[in-house]
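Slide 14.
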Amino acid sequence: MKYPFLFSLASLESPSWPASAETVVKILHICPVPEVLEIWQSAAFAYEKANLAVELEFNYLENEEFKAKLPTLLQSNDCPSLFHSWGGGVMREQILAGVCQDITNAIDGDFKDSFYPAAVHAFAAEGKSYGLPDSVGPIVFWYNKELCERADVDPSAIKYWEDLLDAVRKCKAAGVIPIAVGGSAKWPLQFYPALLMMRVLGKDGMASAYQGDNGGFAGPDVVKAWKLYKELCDLDSFQEGFQTMNAGDAAAFFHDGKAAFHLMGTWLLTAGRLYGTDKKGLPEAKLGWFFFPEVQGGKGKANDIFGSVYGWLVSKDAPKETLDFMKVWLGKETQTKLAALGLSIPMVKGTAEAIQNPFYKALAVGVDNSGWICVAMDQLLGRETGRTFNGEAAAVAAGAQSPEQATQLIENSWSKNRI
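Slide 15: predicted structure.
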C-alpha cells in the first residue's frame, strides 16, 4: 500500500539523478506542519544529492490513524524504515515483538552523546538503544488573556488545584467557557487524571504504582487524584459537546477564542493553530501558559513534566543508510533550524540557545530545570492498559464511572498486561 504523504522529494530531483534508487528509506511520521516539513525536506534533499543511490520517502498519517495502522504496517512488506514513537510501554511491546532494530553500536560515541542522556534513555530498553529522540512536548495549560481578564481570572495566581477550580467558577459566572478539550479522542482527557496522579504521588509514588505496590493503580493516592479530576468534571468545566469533539476541534475552539483554557502540549502552537478558522489561531500577544497546578500536600512539583518525548524507532530490516540519514536529520544543524523558528524544543544539546520564540524558550528552561519527565499514560502503560486508562478518563468525565471503579479497571488491566 501507499501511505498518505504531505510532500515528495521527486519534484526537486536533478535530471542527472538515477530514475530508480537502489535503497529506499521510508519514514512514517505524524507531523502536518509545513515549516517543519520544509526543513526535513531540505535535509533529505542534501542527503540524497550526496548519496545518489538512496531515496528518502516521508509518509504521513494523522495521529489516531497512525496508532491504528502502525502495528499492521510493522508486520507488512511495506514496513517503514523509521517510524514516530513516544517511547514507553508501546515501544517496549514493539521491541518484544521483534520489529525494532538494536542500533546501540551504530550510534555509540559522539552522535549519541550529542543528545540529552534522559531523552536517549527514553528510546532504550535493557541497556540497548532502538531509536533516538528529536524533541519534547510538555503538557501545560494555555490561556486566552482576553477571556481570563473578562472573567477576572489571574492565571499567574493559579498555583494549586483549588486555584484552578476557583478560576473555572469565575469563568462560568462571567459567561466564559472555562476549558476546551477534545473528548471524543479520549487521550486529551487522560492528561487530567495523569497529571493529578503525578502531583499527588510524586515520582517515587508513581513508580510504586507502576510496580503494583500499595494497591497499584487502584491505590488510595491514585483514587484521590481521580476524585480531584471528578471535581473538575462535576463543575461542567468543558465546552458543551466536548465528548463529540476531537483534538483538532478543541484546538480550533480554543484558537477561535471560545474558551479560556486548553491543556495541551506545544503542538497547540504549531499544528494546533492550523485548525483555527483563519488557520492562524490566537496571536501570541493573546496567549499565555502555566504549568499544571500542584495539589496541596501532594508529593509532586509543578515543574515535574508530563508530556511526550518525541522520537524515532528503527525497524528490524531498515537499511544501514537509515542511520546515516538520522545523523543529518537529527543532527545539530537541522535541529537548530527547527529551534530557531520556534517549531520544536529539540533534544540535541546546544540547540536551546537558538530558540527565539518566548514560549518555547520558557518551556525549554522549564524542561532543563525539571527533575522528572513522565510520558503519557497511553504510551507508558502499553496499548491495552493505555486504551483502558483513556477510556476511563472519558467515562468519569461523562459521569458513567466513579473514580474507584475507573482506577480498579485500570489496575485490573495493568496486572494482566504489565510490561
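Speaker note: The chain has two domains: 10-136+309-374, 140-305+376-417.
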